[in-house]
Write a structure and sequence with these properties.
The complex is a heterodimer of chains A (469) and B (512). The C terminus of chain A is likely disordered. Chain A is built from 13 helices and 15 strands. Chain A is 36% helix and 13% strand. Chain A folds into 2 domains: 115 residues, Aspartate Aminotransferase, domain 1; 267 residues, 3-Layer(aba) Sandwich (Aspartate Aminotransferase, domain 2). Chain B has a 7-stranded mixed sheet with strand order 1-7-6-5-4-2-3, with helices on both faces. Chain B has a 3-stranded antiparallel sheet with strand order 10-12-11, covered by helices on one side. In chain B, strands 8-9 form a two-stranded antiparallel sheet. Chain B starts with 44 loop residues before the first helix and ends in a 12-residue tail after the last helix. The relative contact order of chain B is 0.14. The chains are: A alpha/beta (469), B alpha/beta (512). The interface between A and B is large, with 208 and 206 residues.
Chain lengths: 469, 512
Amino acid sequence: MTYVPHSQAERQAMLAAIGVDRVEDLFADVPEALRFPKVSLPEPLSELEILQELQWMSESNADLDHYACFLGAGAYNHYVPSVVDHVISRSEFYTAYTPYQPEVSQGTLQTIFEYQSMICALTGMEAANASHYDGATSMAEAVLMAVAVSRGRRHKVILSPTIHPEYRETVRTYTQGMGLTVVGDDPGKLREGIDLDLEALKALLDSDTACLIVQNPDFFGQMESPAVLQELADAVHEAGAMFVVSADPISLGLFTPPGDYGADIVVGEGQPLGNAISFGGPYLGYFACKDQFKRKIAGRLVGETVDTHGRRGFVLTLVAREQHIRREKATSNICSNQALCALAAGVYLATLGKRGLRTVAELCYHKAHYAASQIAALEGYELVSKEPFFKEFVVRFPRPVSELNSYLLDEWGIIGGYDLGRVYPHLAGCALLCVTEMNSKGEIDYLVEALTTANFQIEGSAGSREVGS
Amino acid sequence: MTEPLIFEISSPGRCGASLPACDVPRTPLPAGMVRDDLSLPEVSEVDVIRHYVRLSQLNYGVDKGFYPLGSCTMKYNPKVNEVAARLPGFARTHPYQDPDSVQGNLTLMFELQEYLKELSGFAAVSLQPAAGAHGELTGVLIIRAYHQSRGDSKRTKMLIPDSAHGTNPASTSMCGYTTVEIKSDARGNVDLEDLRAHCDDTVAGLMLTNPNTLGLFDEHVLEIADLVHSCGGLLYGDGANFNALMGIAKPAQLGFDVMHFNLHKTFSTPHGGGGPGSGPVGVSQRLAQFLPGPIVVPAMAEDGWVGGPAEHADEHAEEHTGKHTEEHAEECHALRLAMPKHSIGRVKSFYGNFGVLIKAYTYIRVLGAEGLRQASQDAVLNANYLMHRLKDVYPLPYDRTCMHEFVLGGPPPEAEGVHTMDVAKRLMDYGFHPPTVYFPLIVHEAIMIEPTETESKATLDAFAEAMIKIAEEAVIDPDLLHSAPHVTPVTRLDETRAARRPRLRWVPPRQD
């Protein structure tokens, strides 16, 4: 099976029309000694065989349909309504490409326009693009934009240490050739282990600062109040820099949007909005900013216009900023977006609407607080997080996190929290737990029971147990 | 035929989702932190489905018809790929799970790394980059890191042929390099004299697309590689056009040091209306330690192992000829994620667009080595056939055997006042998606056609006949082209207006 339709006779007819004898003759430009090399790959499989093999391969994983999951840290287990996959499975959407020809792409263009509108509403911003690769690259693009807004005159980027570690790493990767200094995210600057020291961040602001970035709710799940962040925003603006906020979009269904506390750019991971968790990708990075910066946005933007009959229609717009026109003058090289993931996000937001999204956020909030209070009451476990937090919280375990997680997985069928010691050495022994609407009270109580036994009996119960079915 | 915005069919109080009741005690919400309003649409599930189904019907996709968008490789997207990526055992796994609990995922990724190595001849591959342009940025950062690791800081220039993809210069600028454009010669190859004149110890590398955006295989690729290497530079390969080369040539053997793959072009994963794609990067041995990561390595491998010589893939291929056994399962339980020793760092969160990787893996396993070679051969056959059918009617600036695509020089000269855009729009009336237009920039009024291997002779003939008919119309009745398209949901759109006063979102009507 190769998905090619030609019969040998047709190939011969085509070769004859071209005027060559053999298909090999079409490759005369390839150096002869290197032409048609030996390629060793597994033998081809029929559709039946490959599906059997993939089924086997996928079932060797522990998946979230068969295990209770309390793991988040940037990739979240939220419910995806059935309509979402139904819509993104329509091949009119997924077999199209970037809408270069708007007359035959109004479907894609209008869904992006609607997505942009919803992201603006969520974040309290006035312009949003069609998305970046993920939350981390969206943050890196915010840095590039801030530097561009300063016309390249500002070279310092201040990152909060409570930003997702992989996002901070991605910002550093992107900017390594640009002569910028990235400062502020020394974990040693955290107060009481996980608290952000806003004064320490403020102290780094100066006339060379392009932007200051915080995450809210932060990597540990904690939230700063809008009043405190507005104060920070004022200080950032005083220094002539841009204030960038990264936010979990589900939290914005309930809590004050960054636009209300002075953000110039809001970015974040859009995966929680109707996208499969899929081992880390594909996801989408949402990106929104104030109106005054819209002409500096990288990536794809869809705008409204009219056709020759005066009917409303949509087109890719402000493309003059894009790499394919200005090439080396462009500040970013991105020339695509995660259109199908953005479509999923749009369908998700439309389906839930303002009431549904708020309900999801409230369920996360209440369930996370219930779980945190139950675990805090256990002997040997300490709740490190303080109010207010959203759907994640930090717990100090009585045993090494990896040891306890293995016990939870093997003996109880539970996927435990993120081991914070992996990236914050001073938090060794602490786990970041995540609770969403997907975790029933029964499942939370089951986790609490498992943690209770783990504290004194790591060799505990016999055999593997699965929950969630 | 237009569809209202989802906001315009909104009705207060509706919700399209049913959610469980709260089954835990409620915790008071923090004071002063709850938002007042949120202007998301309020619609029912039926509203949602009808709205998006109607919107989908305004789109043109590969499943609807011929989509010869040059340099985008709009080949058929096999349906088994979609089923594979949605298997819950893959789709419902978390990236931070213990590696022991996701060995199936790691096996798939490891084997895909090996397959890409085998097809390209490179020593190591990272699957992390999310798209072609992302892979390019990664590749240039790797080149930069390599020179820096040798204390070679003189190199400030990246050479880029004028037939390159537009993203190449942008990727270069992001890494702090200056772009130097290299001319093409009369046959569409890199002009060797111009290249030689620019090769010195300030050159970081050359970014070569081969076959290039004219669809031509550079006849001097080995000399180009020698020239670049002899001045201490590295050769970057833009793999956007790899669909012409599977089983035809291995880029590493041609002298490339680093190249990105476009899984959404060559390996049949859908374009999704603009993404998600996937842009893995392959490198030669000397660059392996600079790859972004983490990448998948055998658990037993010593620290810093990023990939061995290509023979490894052979052993792996052997394993797959037999049925799966318990031992094989055990053997697969031996992979982990690792960061290359001098990695440029992560280029995104997690490990790459895993869902896309599953589709590419599935495609490779279904075709096998011979099937992939057949795909490339037929892609080249189709392009040459179509080029021959059209070259007597449309100008062909570079008249030589092409690879997987070719570039015409606009409408026939006798069609005065008719432009490439008019031809493109008129094609829609005949039920075809237009080719890429006005690119590459070195061809005036360029029409860049890439048929791909999944199109039949009948489809190519029908397209050729439409193009020939349009060429006639262009002379007899040019206004028919100027006013095209006529049968699409909307007619030509006012792009100037869209850009002058950008309206980028729906704004709630004021409640006066």
